[in-house]
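Page 37, continued from 36.
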């Protein structure tokens, strides 16, 4: 008998079972709407890592860049430019969502990243408010499309809140590894009046991520079509208005996003003006990222156990939002700035490990058929919170701080946030029937 012949199995014996091959290339089963989660996690984590190295290398110094390139402009101009950028990152995708499903995930995600690369590459060369805002809108719009499709893709290839939260948590780790490196990259490459190396590096990160997506994501994988031509259909709005839990989820996401935006607006201004040592300032942002990387795995495991026991995503969102408010309270002047800043960062990081993955998981679980439409709704509420938070943090806080009333901002913010969170956490007796 040839050595290549099959080995015969005696009658009644159980044939040997080969262990499944470990896949490191994304696959997708249309019938079961499921993919190889390990391979998808590796791919999307690498994509998010590259994308957010660019994002977080710019974000800590963006307010300073705008202020330098617009000499003589007021704090209102800085706040308005930050508002434009954060708004573009959040909701620009809504302007093109009608056409997104005509393209594959690979094409649309890569196209958004290349737009962001072009916008960032041009920023060092402009010195007028109109041109700067235009480039910020282009860069933010590309990130918006990429982010929407990345979240929708995860909703397509996973089933169940626990599995989705695991994958969103993995992405949050990648994002925070990038966030740890970003401030130091910014410190090393950016000097006032000489930002070209930094912005070219950022553009290169986006272009590399686009290449990875085009290379690895299956070309025949497309978003599920929406139910209408609008980003959010009437049917979806009816779900939110009639289902009190869905409405509370959306409002809690907006409240938490408002508080999250303070970290890169009011907090960044506070430490820039109050802490002279540059490495200590950069260390604050890096401490946040490293703390999230360390805490995310055990927190995700805890969240998984809680959800198996019946704890709802809304309760976890509310817990994260309350911790954000506590982090703000620590900045209200009770202790020296350096100590209170690092304590605030620690609490803020714990809040982020709860809030950031769960906000995506919560919207994935809403009774909405199209993942694109569910995440369009998420974009609207989260971006409203984040952009208004950036406007207040970049404008109102600067005005109050200059007048010597910065502590009042943090006290009012934390008190208001705790009140809103408490109201939204009141249990729903029943769902309104339509």
């Amino acid at each position: 008998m040839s050595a290549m012949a099959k080995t015969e199995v005696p009658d009644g014996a159980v044939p040997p079972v080969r262990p499944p091959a470990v896949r490191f290339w994304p696959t997708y089963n249309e019938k079961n709407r499921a993919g190889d989660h390990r391979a998808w996690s590796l791919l999307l984590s690498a994509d998010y890592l590259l994308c957010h190295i660019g994002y977080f290398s710019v974000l800590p110094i963006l307010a300073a860049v705008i202020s330098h390139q617009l000499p003589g402009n007021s704090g209102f101009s800085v706040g308005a430019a930050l508002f434009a950028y954060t708004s573009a990152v959040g909701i620009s995708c809504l302007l093109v969502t009608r056409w997104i499903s005509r393209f594959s995930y690979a094409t649309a995600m890569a196209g958004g990243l290349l737009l962001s690369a072009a916008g960032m590459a041009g920023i060092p060369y402009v010195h007028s408010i109109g041109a700067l805002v235009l480039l910020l809108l282009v860069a933010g719009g590309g990130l918006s499309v990429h982010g929407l499709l990345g979240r929708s893709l995860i909703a397509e290839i996973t089933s169940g809140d626990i599995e989705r939260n695991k994958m969103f948590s993995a992405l949050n780790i990648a994002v925070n590894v990038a966030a740890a490196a970003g401030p130091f990259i910014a410190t090393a490459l950016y000097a006032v009046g000489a930002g070209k190396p930094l912005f070219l590096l950022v553009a290169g990160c986006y272009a590399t991520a686009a290449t990875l997506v085009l290379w690895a994501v299956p070309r025949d994988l497309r978003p599920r079509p929406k139910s209408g031509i609008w980003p959010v259909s009437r049917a979806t709005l009816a779900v939110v208005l009639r289902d009190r839990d869905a409405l509370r989820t959306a409002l809690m996401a907006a409240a938490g996003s408002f508080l999250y935006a303070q970290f890169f607006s009011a907090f960044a201004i506070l430490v820039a003006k109050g802490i002279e040592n540059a490495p200590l300032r950069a260390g604050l942002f890096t401490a946040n990222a490293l703390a999230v990387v360390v805490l995310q795995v055990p927190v995700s495991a805890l969240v998984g156990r809680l959800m198996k026991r019946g704890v709802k995503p809304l309760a976890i969102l509310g817990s994260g939002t309350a911790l954000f408010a506590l982090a703000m309270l620590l900045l209200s002047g009770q202790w020296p700035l350096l100590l209170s800043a690092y304590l605030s960062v620690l609490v803020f990081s714990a809040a982020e490990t709860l809030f950031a993955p769960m906000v995506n998981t919560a919207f994935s679980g809403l009774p909405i058929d199209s993942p694109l439409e569910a995440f369009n709704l998420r974009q609207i509420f989260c971006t409203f919170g984040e952009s208004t938070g950036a406007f207040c943090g970049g404008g109102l806080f600067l005005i109050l701080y200059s007048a010597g009333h910065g502590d009042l901002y943090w006290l009012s913010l934390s008190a208001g946030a705790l009140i809103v969170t408490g109201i939204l956490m009141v249990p729903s007796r029943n769902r309104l029937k339509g």
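The radius of gyration is 23 Å. Flag for discussion at group meeting. The first strand starts at residue 28 and ends at 29.
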